Model the fold of this input.
Amino acid sequence: MVSIKQDIRIGFYVCHCGHNIASMVDCPEVASYVEKLPGVVLSRDYKYMCSDPGQELIQKDIKEFDLNRVVVASCSPLLHEHTFRTAVAAGGLNPFFFHMVNIREHDSWVHTDRKEATAKAKALARAAIRRVAHHKALEVKQVPVNPDVLVVGGGIAGIHAALTLANAGKKVYLVEREPSIGGHMAKFDKTFPTLDCAACILTPKMSSVGAHENITLWSYSEVVKMDGYVGNYTVMVKRKARFINEDLCTGCQECVANCIYKEPKFTDEFNEGLGKRKPVYIPFPQATPQVVLIDPDVCLNFKRGVLTDKCKKTCVEACGDRKAIDFKQKEQFTEIKVGTIIVATGFQTFDAKRVLPYGYGVYPNVYTAMEVERLVNASGPTSGEVILRDGRQPKAIGIIHCVGSRDKKTNRWCSRVCCMYSMKLAHLLKEHTGAEIYNFYIDIRAPGKGYEEFYDKLNEEGVHFVRGRVGEVTDWGMTPEEEGKLVIRVEDTLAGFVRRIPVDMVVLATGLEPQADAQDVRRLFNMSCGTEGFFLERHPKLAPVNTFTDGIFIAGCCQGPRDIPDTVAQAGAAAAEAMVLIDKGHVEQEPNTAYVLPDCCGCKSCLPLCPYTAITFDEATKKAVINEALCKGCGTCVSSCPSGSIAQNLFEDEEVFSEIEGVLAD
Amino acid sequence: MKYSYFPGCSLKGLGRAYEESLLPVMKHLGVELQELDDWNCCGATAYMAVDEVKACVLAARNLALAEKSGLNQVMAPCAACYLVLNKAKHYFHDYPAMKATMDRALNAVGLHYSGDTPVRHPLDILLNDVGLEAIKQKVEKPLKGLKVATYYGCQIVRPYATFDDQYNPTTMDRLMEALGATLVHYPLKTKCCGGSLTGTLPEAGIRLVYILLNEAKKRGADCIATVCPLCQFNLDGYHSQLKAQYGDVLVPTVYFTQLMGLAFGLSDKELGLNRAAVPFKWRPPLPAAATPVPA
Amino acid sequence: MVKSMTTPPAAKQETVPTRSSDRPNVQRPGEESVPVMKLRPTIKYEADRVRGFGREIISVPGCEQLESCIQCGTCSGVCPLSIYMDHTPRQVMALARADFKNEVLRSRTIWLCASCYACTVECPQEIRITDIMYELKQRAIREGIFPKRFPIPILAYDFSEMVKKNGRITEMILVIKLFMKTSWLAALGNWRLGIDLIKTGRFSLVTEKIKHHGDIARMMDAVDDQKGS
Done:
């Protein structure tokens, strides 16, 4: 017979859970068995413990019978531990004097023999009774939350999240690594299915961001370090050198007009390499901030990025009194403190060169979808005229869906937006050129609002939809009409034969994938990612914008490919989640944290093991120190400490061993 | 450099010009070849169509014999043999059931295969073991002015692309350039020639041959360089049928080893140049100086 | 299991399915006695399926990915011979997976496949289509499902027999045997090729044989024993 401290008074409840437990476990028998165990003052069985009457029963019993420990044997703690802890607390007892036993998922649901199931329930109950006697009173920790927010990424997701928070009165830092915010959306011509001009709907939001008193916009900047824990993040931001003083530049672009290079000569990244720019440039006309920048790799005043000061500097002359150009500008590092972070770093497009049979980079008239967006854009390199690289105007265009997507050799997933944007491009190209357009697809994915109707519209416009994944794009012809063209060979699976279709232009609907540095970024922010490399949400259905790190949220395509409506919705959701923390003002932490005992010898074995970097070494005391706020109670350090000098709340040695003894007794 | 040499049935038969040009060229470069003693047919595509397991066992016998000979690398010039031997090796490693059968069958004749012996193509050995520099040194009559369309065919690039790119292989291209020849941009370099279909289903097979020859002719190639005896046979042997159906599309088709031999200054007879149905009459111009001119 | 035979399994009397453009029931100008619109229903009932056939193919090592076919059509798109096939490679995959064994083994496709592997390297689901074609060829040969005097399976079979016996093949003997069994006319039609081969010294009728040619038969027997046990 095991002895228990005299003053322990345990109340035990076994739940029927309707039929879920009672059908396999004899609950009254368990209750009467437990009643006889030492330390148990009362033992009841009840139909639904989680119901209001059930909870009230606990509260009544605590008061009436002066209970100081409560055990409930029912379902999984994941479901109702919080419910019962709250009930116990309402009954006037410290909630951590409560212990929950799972006799549903761990017992009744996995047994087919009633006798065995009941015996197991008894054993589990016995273990819990012995354990709970060792429970200590613990307090839920409260950590204050800094009300400022950091939004990483200035695409439509970051912009929307920042505006939502700023409009709610929160102070937001928006950090964007490109010289202007706007992201990929700024490059689009029109958006599907409404064919709204992308710039027209985006630029008002961009201006709001630029003008908002609550938003500190740091463009051409990157986060380089992040420390801290929910509510208290310390972030180091690198402000890259534009060689322009942002506060003094008015965006007049006189410097660009007067640059020593009379003609633009260098690859224009914004225009996907289709156009040229000068060393001093503004990425696009509506850039926010409306400030130019200088590229030290091609500017004559630099050699290989190092200032030589050899150029005549006609730009400085043209800038005149504004004196905004500063060749001596260096990159700066600024530290900020925020309580929550929203990561909205977006996507990159699949590199079409990786699919060799389609000839991108080999045949000049094979384009990616992004390049075509710039081509049809009125503010693009050809002012919206669809003129091919060899100067021709296309009479027939082939648009190939699923480039890089739905392919085990490249990206396994469907990129979700390509069918729709391929249709959009088909419409725009037809409008601009009047050419014969062929869309080659495997499936048409048009799930959103107005999307199927858009597909109808395209069919009505006479765009040819051929169901077949293109085998190859070649430049050799079998008939006179194929000479000098790009020939697409494909099986028209619906019509039932293989076709050769000569076109002048091929557009590749490249898929979406994680940014090239996504792995570095996610490690910076302590986030997980899925097998494809997109950032991992806490729960795919119920927590799509939370990550496994409290206080850090994700929004937009960095989490997975999605269209603009979904991105904006997610951005709003992430802002709301951040606001929950900010408005509450504090976070509560489960006290199942580990703590270092005084006999720590300072061997430092635990430091590198913590997945949450919660352990540091105190040079003064020469002992390890665990930050309670960061500790998630995983137990790694506890089990690995060579001298057993780390213990864990709610999993103390006596608690665990008594539970084991309880199960094995009898 | 010594390799176990696996000629295959074709190099002793219809493709004998390949062997005839390969051996002196290799000798000239100091590469020693020892013909695998008592090698058997690799099975090619035909045996695979009858029984895959037996086909692998057939191939495995050669690999086991190679290991027995003590030479640790096999050179298989014929593209089909190259593919089949590599396939057997892959199956040996990937499918335990297959491995067990292969072991058992080899055991029955007192042989053993470890699974390690690499099977390599002459292009691989030439570019990676011998090196283009060493080859350039031996060029006495650069193939100046010869426009070559390099044709790799299917089997050395698909499905196993070990020493070269699957879609745009360049080993032979670089070799030709080292010999001083001019490359013709030939996008059909890995398109199927029809294989055995030219004989069994001519309507289908001959058309594929026509496509290859037509494009080479359109792009101004003086000749097509091949690595596979069946490709060479197909591109070379059906000129009368082609002429009847499609008109004149003759382009001489040679083995890359024959071009190498010409560049090295070896004689026509040594290189089996008289074996082709469509004669290849171009010969490299004599260099201005007597000393060898590296390309 | 085909153990040892001196002749290939008897070819069943099957008509090779015709191409869609050779419909016999279409009246051509000048023809009088052809009935107008001869109807032939193409519906397939569940009884037409050979249940388990798809699973059988999928369970062959190397053919597992057939399960994942999304019917994109890339294989047919790159296949140089798909334009002659009654069922394109994609269709054959669908038919095989749906258990339509008879349609698959009786199709021209499996014989037209030149095993160039273009389909296998392009397939987005990494299905080894060429190896599945080989598997289907083997089954058709085993069950004797091919038109009488059809050269491809006869060639494959004779090839394997020659190797089993001699360890090597003698190309000219094989080809001549093939023509004798299938079509004399075709042999005669190739007379120019024959002359070319003689002129260039490639016409050899000397049987190539290896020293230990008995090894081959012994190895094949060992394979059969294992399968049987």
